[in-house]
Amino acid sequence: MSGGILVLEQVTVQAGDFVLSPFSLEIREGECVALMGPSGCGKTTLLETVCGLREGPVGGRVVLDGLEVKNLPPGARGIGLVPQDVVLFPSLTVREQIEFGPKLHGWKPEEIKERVESLARDLGLEGLLSRLPEGLSGGEARRVALGRALALRPQLLCLDEALSGLDEARHDEVLGVIRKMIEREGVTALHVTHSKKEAEAIADRVVVMD
Amino acid sequence: MEKGIISDQKIWRVRPEWPFLLFLVFVVAAYLGLLLLLVGANMLTVSWSQASEILKDADIQHSITLTFVTCTATAILSVLVSVPVGYLLSRYQFRGRALVDTFLDIPILLPPLIVGLSLLILFNRIPPSACCGMLAGGALIAAIWGAARKGNGIVIQFLVGSAILFGLLSFVFAGSQRSLEGIVSEVGFPMTFHPLGVVLAQFPVAAAFAVRTMRTTFDQISPRYEEVAMTLGCNRGQAFMRVVLPLAGKGIVAAGTMAWARALGEFGPILIFAGATRGRTEVLATSVFLEINIGNLPGAAALSLLMILLAVSTLLIVRCLAGRGGAV
Predict the structure, then answer these.
(1) CB contact under 8 A, B235 and A51
(2) CB contact, 8 Å: B232 with chain A?
(3) What was the pLDDT predicted at B326?
(4) Is the predicted pLDDT of residue B328 greater than 60, yes or no?
(5) Do A73 and B243 touch (CB under 8 A)?
(6) Which residue in A143, A195, A188, A209 sits closest to A33, CA to CA?
(7) What ipTM is given for this predicted complex?
(8) B241: which chain A residues are within 8 Å (Cβ-Cβ)?
(9) What was the pLDDT predicted at A143?
């Protein structure tokens, strides 16, 4: 296996009593892959392993853009994460959420401003930039989390059941925004989901975990 | 039978609720009644004129000032210690965590008098070489134990480094006959029977309560915030400073307030380690004791009421913060 932006080779994870059986996957640059499987099969564990958020022994190889990243800290991997529970920082406004990564990486103020405004325009967040997370609806919060994850132009976008808990109308709206943003940003994406319909609507390829 | 109306036979018989409610009200009323009687007893013992007379006394005014200063200093120190300790215990799983946790609760479990006695012995009877030797031994045992259980390399290196440092200091102080008190007095920070000693006597118990509060605070803040911050480029320290600390603000205030209230009520350790010298190391708790000793019961009651007022105000602040949805 080689050539993919993300290559997982016989990855095994031990997390307490749970052991993830050897799993392999290759995602090509610009591809959107949906990862499906029954509850408890280890989808989120695998996603967190790719992001570097799992403490504990990880077997096999996790290669991002040709570089073995197993021993790299999460922030050095160039991955954007939209978690299932959204996890917006409660004390930061929408603008500050999106600026968080670029500021941390020392971007110039004008670059940050331009990036925030461009993302806010694409995500329909222009009127919400000064709002705190507590004043946002579920769909708006998902769009902010997507903007925060994309702000640094990651080489891989990981979405962990990012649409769960939304009503049908909001679900379809956010799904459309995600699809549009993945295309517009040209980012490679790994989307973990329970829903076959969602997987087929968003992904170029669906991978099922046992 | 009319449609929609349940006949008497179909209603299940349920025993009445009032006996249980009456039991709850009785217990709560009895307990609150006792507390009310305790406060009332003080109020009935002292008149306004007696209260105002004792509060005008220069020594008592010094005692009130010293109480505020020492309680505030203890609260600040407690917060400075409890934030990192609470975070470590909340977020890191490590071998020996239960042991550290138990050790940190010792000041809460022990009779406060023992804290004072231990401080008195430590500062005046134990030579500095022995103190350093004990710390070196403790660090060495922890390092060996950690290494045997394949613990974190950096922590083990730190422990070994500390063991070496304290071991060397132990040799440096080996010939010295001075006590720890002698050394701290020489550098300008006398402790025993000195106002600074009041803070040290208040600190162990107050800090233990603050640690508990901070640990609960951090337990209630989801580690997902740090994880997301880390994917955006933060290291653990940056995630803590930028994301967790702002969320823990109310918990920090609550920990400080709790430490302040504990320090206010401290008596035994202060009496033994700092003494109860009028106009020097006397704080409100020791003032009450001194007033009783000289037979001024109304004076002692007036000071007790002042302390009750301070304690209630402090607790109200904590409750208020907790009620506003803070992580307290």
Answers:
(1) no
(2) yes
(3) 46
(4) no
(5) no
(6) A188
(7) 0.91
(8) none
(9) 94
Name the CA radius of gyration of chain B, rounded.
26
Q: Residue A185 and residue A188: Cα distance in Å, rounded? A: 9
Which pLDDT does position B7 carry in this prediction? 66
Contacts of A77 in chain B (CB under 8 A): 231
Residue-level pLDDT at B235: 92
B230 touching A (Cβ < 8 Å): yes
Q: Do A53 and B227 touch (CB under 8 A)?
A: yes
Amino acid sitting at position B263: A
Q: Distance (Å) from the C-alpha of residue B229 to the closest C-alpha of chain A?
A: 8
List C-alpha distances in Å: B17 to A131, B26, B174.
48, 15, 73
Q: Which residue of A has its CA nearest to B234?
A: A75
The band of B4, judged by pLDDT with boundaries at 50, 70 and 90, is low
Could you say which of B222, B231, B242 has the minimum Cβ distance to residue A81?
A: B231
pLDDT score at A62: 92
Judge whether B229 is closer than 8 Å to chain A, CB to CB: yes
For B10-19, b/e burial (b = at least 16 CB within 10 A) is eeeeeeeeee
Fold topology of B52-124+188-328: MetI-like fold (1.10.3720)
pLDDT in tens, B13-50: 888 899 999 999 999 999 999 999 999 999 999 998 98
Residues comprising chain A, all counted:
210
Tokens of A56: 């504990």
Query: What mean pLDDT value characterizes chain B?
Result: 90
Chain B touched by A79 (CB under 8 Å)? yes
Q: Which chain A positions have a beta carbon within 8 Å of B229's beta carbon?
A: 89, 100
Instruction: Provide the percentage of residues in chain B whose pLDDT is more than 70.
Output: 95
Three-state SS at B281: coil
Instruction: Give residue-wise pLDDT tens across range A14-34.
Output: 877 788 889 999 999 989 999
Residues with Cβ within 8 Å of residue B133, at least 6 apart in sequence: B166, B167, B170
What is the strand order of the sheet A6-15 is part of? A18-27, A6-15, A58-64, A67-68
Chain-chain contact of A74 with B231 (C-beta, under 8 angstroms): yes
Cβ distance B233 to A152 less than 8 Å, yes or no, reads: yes
Q: How far apart are CA B239 and CA B223, in angstroms?
A: 10
Which chain A residue shows the shortest CA-CA distance from B224? A87
Domains in chain A, please, with CATH?
Answer: 6-208 (3.40.50.300)
Tokens at B228, concatenated: 């997301």
Question: And the tokens for B233?
Answer: 């480029």
CB-based contacts of B116: which residues, under 8 Å, 6+ apart? B201, B268, B269, B270, B271, B272, B273
Distances in whole angstroms, Cα of residue A4 to Cα of each of A23, A26, A189: 16, 6, 12
Ranges assigned E (strand) in B24-118: none
Q: Would you tell me how many other CB atoms lie within 10 Å of the CB of residue B119?
A: 22
The domains of chain B are located at 52-124+188-328, 127-178
| A-B Cβ pairs (cutoff 8 Å, strict) | 58
